[in-house]
Automatic annotation (TrEMBL):
Domain of life: Eukaryota
TM ranges: none
CDD domains on file: CLECT
Protein name, entry field: Apple domain-containing protein
Apple domain boundaries: 15-91
Coiled coil: none
SMART domains (alphabetical): CW
Organism: Caenorhabditis angaria
Gene3D superfamilies reported for this sequence: Mannose-Binding Protein A, subunit A (3.10.100.10)
InterPro entries the UniProt entry points to: C-type_lectin-like/link_sf, CTDL_fold, PAN-3_domain, Pan_app
Amino acid sequence: MIFLLTSIIFSAISCSQIILIYGTLNVSDVLSTTSVSDKESCSELCLSEVNCVSLFFIPSSGSCSIYSMYQVLSYQKNDVSENVVGIKTNSSSSTCSSSFSDINLSGDVNGIAYQFSPDSSFSYQTCPEEYKQFTRTRGIWCMKLHNFSTPTPRDFSYCSQQSAYPTGFDNDDEISFITSEILSLSLLQRNIGIDGHRKSSCYNSTTTWCDDFEWSNNYTNYPTLINWAANDPSRRDGSILENDLGIWMKDESTLVDIFGDIANTTNIHGFVCGVPLGNWNFD
């Protein structure tokens, strides 16, 4: 029994290709499972589903399961198994050749980097350890709340020291995640730094003060997602300008209307950092 099947199924539209292998998949969940007549039909299902990156076909039952990148953990080859694993890759041929020599063994599918070795394993790029993965309109984003044991002045360089970027929020799921992370901290650890700085035009002496904020990088693109806490934005604390964004715990159990403007010298108990995953669309 050979390990690598001779058939390679490809989509002439996108040059995505399915490499078929004897073995099993280790997965956490499934996009869908249906009955089909053969492995080719199962491959076509995966090619037609943009989020599918892998498939598992059982010839004896006709069961075809397809999986997204987030659901596939690993595969195990099995030279004597009749069950088939399919891995979606891309082609190095402009004509979508079905030749195995034209398969890119590393690249990206759906903007997610992959590395494939027929004799051992495949893997997809994942978030760094302890980072949570989210889907933004421009790409895949990983986030983590870094908790400080000692209150520290707000400093953007902290995230770069973690090979990450300061981050704002792009959707409600991200806010809910960071909210739950903050609630898991003690009440003394309640002031959190995030990306966001009031536009200089808003506090220029020749213009009217305003509350328009901008980000330090292009990965956050939702500046209106700011739910101000009571008495914020305050814009200044005495003579100290408060032109940066932070998160404040309102009470012991909830974080509703959590954003505040703070000074760049404010001591914080953590910073929210982010890491991009795969290719991003900045058009």
